[in-house]
Amino acid sequence: MAANNYRHALFCAIVTLIISFPILGFNLEAKGVNIELTGAKTSTIVAVILAAVAVFVFQAYRDSFMGLLGKLPKLNPLAGREPMEQSKRVKLESWVLTGIVVLALFWPFVVSRGSVDLATLVLIYIMLALGLNVVVGLAGLLDLGYVAFYAVGAYTFALLSQYTGISFWMALPIGALLAGLTGMILGFPVLRLRGDYLAIVTLGFGEIIRILLNNWTTLTGGPNGIGGIPEPTLFGMEFGRRIKEEGNTSFHETFGIAYSGEHKVIFLYLIALVLAVITALIIRRFMRMPVGRAWEALREDEIAARSLGLSRTAVKLSAFTIGAFFAGFAGTVFASKQGFISPESFVFLESAIILAIVVLGGMGSQLGVILAAIAVTILPELAREFSEYRMLIFGAAMVLMMVWRPQGLLPMRRIHITLNKQG
Amino acid sequence: MQDLLYFSQQLINGLTIGSAYALIAIGYTMVYGIIGMINFAHGEIYMIGAYTALIAITGLTALGLAWLPLILIVALLCAMIVSSSMGWAVERVAYRPVRGRHRLIPLISAIGMSIFLQNYVHLAQGSRNIGFPALIEGGFNFSADGTFEMSLSYMQITIFVTTLVCMTALSLFISRSRTGRACRAVSQDLGMASLLGIDTNRIISATFIIGASLAAVAGLLLGMYYGSIDPLFGFIAGLKAFTAAVLGGIGSIPGAMLGGLILGVSESMTSGYLSGEYKDVVSFGLLILILLFKPTGLLGKPEVEKI
């Protein structure tokens, strides 16, 4: 047994060396037309060797490690306790959510402009993640092309404002409805497909949308994107120094205060906040409505759900459309915030990030998804030096979550009734 | 005559790309055939194969080795070893622990692995694309009246021949060897095969290793053919190869070969007659259409849903 263990450990260590040494140990550098090979820094090579040794030690003494791990006192002191009472938990969750919203309301007035800007981005991601949560978390449909609907929302606003001079408030429902419609049109044929095929088809669809945006130069401006997207106005009051459109007044003149660029940023943030709260509330309602129950039923057991009379297409389509609708919502806000959009913003990686948020937060759980969106967007900003490792860590986190905790950090608990024992 | 030459040129280009796609598609189709999951990270394994090959070629040239076949063979071996170790490790780390859980869980794990590997190479080798030296140059030129020249380069011939050799070896391996027989048994019925004393874990690992080494071969060939590589180039190629696998009928090895060729030809016809920008749209559109109307593909066997 022992010898076998060592052999396996040695094998694993050698594999570690093989997969890391050539890629990490040598750097390819283009010098003019020629390519030169330089050795990596000594620290990298030492790290690779240390990693191999670590793998060897771990694999060789795997059983004792695992034994030790089991004997360790539980890291999480709350792990062993009884689950909180149903009504208490629901109340607590509402309180936490309300607390977050109240905190978010005062947030922009105390922090710097850059933080407010970042917070707006966080809110956009929250909207996206809440929307995808309906599709992936509740309905169990893996959508890898979610960013396409986000693009539809953003481009709808950009194009309409370019050709018809539409305002943000008009574009918001149009963008969201168009995205929802796209979702419905796409969903109708593809939702018959089994889970993993559906994932690939949506991925292909997302790529098609991106390629079209990139190459349909006459309409979308191709890779150059579309600029000059207007900012939202408050009852016809603009936030710029000078008024761009006839008939509008400017915010700082109406209220007789000095012009400040911060007003605009804070206003946008507040709009995003209100929309994110609306999104969360609407989806929360949906979850408790028959259609929300139907999503989960179909996810859990398709055959049983269908035999109880649920229409598979209608239920799945509703989830897909609602998810797409909120992506369009977020897209319009994004276009308005950036003032400029290009296909660069709608690549597959974006879909993967939103998916990662949903997965990390706990599929189906709103609070979890919101916290994950905040963490995923803010952590890389806090640790600037790690920002280039962001996607690496994302990828690893997705794998580790699936292996150890597929239900996510804050898993969803369904409202349920436990029967009391009689007598 | 002119049109015919132009057409044959597109056909040759398409078959070249298509046969390389087929090599990658084998990895998807074998893994799907056995454990029913889409190995999303397969495109990255192909990309790593290409990088390793380039590193080996550059290193060997710097050491003063000049005999081209030796360089290529050594580079190929290096790429195959690294890629197949990667394939083995990926299966061990990311797929085996989640095997048998709900369908979406292995898929998300695979997407995570794919992002991880992309960024691993990105961090180690930079995000810029690196030129891949064209080691095999020249070719035959055919011309009718001197205006359009149809060319069949030695590189294209190399790709055909290598693919043919690999495919023949694979077919022989699957049909004749003991492991190959076990592979077929496991793909028919995993539970039954394991009852009959086949070490299914070992067979699944073997599948990943075979798929990854074929992807490495494709990595070297396509890297050389395109002339440059970057950390993202596995993603699209992986998607194309997956399309090829689905087109031919996922789970079927001859299907993957056929699917790869059809996809390659339709792609090169699109860029030849319509526009190069839309060739990806055509292949993804093809994927969507096939999945909608004939999810079993051309050579796949229909799947009966058991309750």
What does this structure look like?
The complex is a heterodimer of chains A (423) and B (307). Chain A has 423 residues and is mostly helical. In chain A, 69% of the residues lie in helices and 4% in strands. Chain A is built from 17 helices and four strands. A two-stranded antiparallel sheet of chain A has the order 1-2. In chain A, strands 3-4 form a two-stranded parallel sheet. In chain A, strand 1 and strand 2 form a beta hairpin. In chain A, helix 7 packs antiparallel against helix 14, helix 12 crosses helix 14 and helix 15 crosses helix 17. Chain B has 307 residues and is mainly α. Chain B has a two-stranded antiparallel ribbon with strand order 1-4. A two-stranded antiparallel ribbon of chain B has the order 2-3. The mean pLDDT of chain B is 86. The chains are: A mainly alpha (423), B mainly alpha (307).
In brief:
The complex is a heterodimer of chains A (423) and B (307). By secondary structure, chain A is mainly α.
List its salient traits.
heterodimer; A: 423 residues; mainly alpha; ABC transporter involved in vitamin B12 uptake, BtuC; two-stranded parallel ribbon; 4 strands; B: 307 residues; two-stranded antiparallel ribbon; two-stranded antiparallel sheet
What is the architecture of the largest domain in chain A at the second tier of CATH?
Answer: Orthogonal Bundle
Output the number of helix runs of chain A: 17
Structural class of chain B: mainly alpha
The share of residues in extended strands of chain A comes to: under 5%
Describe the strand arrangement of the main beta sheet of chain A, using strand numbers. 1-2
Note the main sheet of chain A: 2 strands, antiparallel
CATH topology of the largest domain in chain A: ABC transporter involved in vitamin B12 uptake, BtuC
The parts of chain A where pLDDT drops under 50 for at least 5 residues are: none
The DSSP helix count of chain B reads 11
Rg of chain A, nearest Å: 25 Å
Structural class of chain A: mainly alpha
- Strand order, sheet with most strands of chain B: 1-4
Total number of domains of chain A = 2
How many individual β-strands of chain A?
A: 4
Characterize the quaternary organization of these chains: heterodimer
- Stretches with pLDDT under 50, minimum 5 residues of chain B: none
What is the overall silhouette of chain B? globular
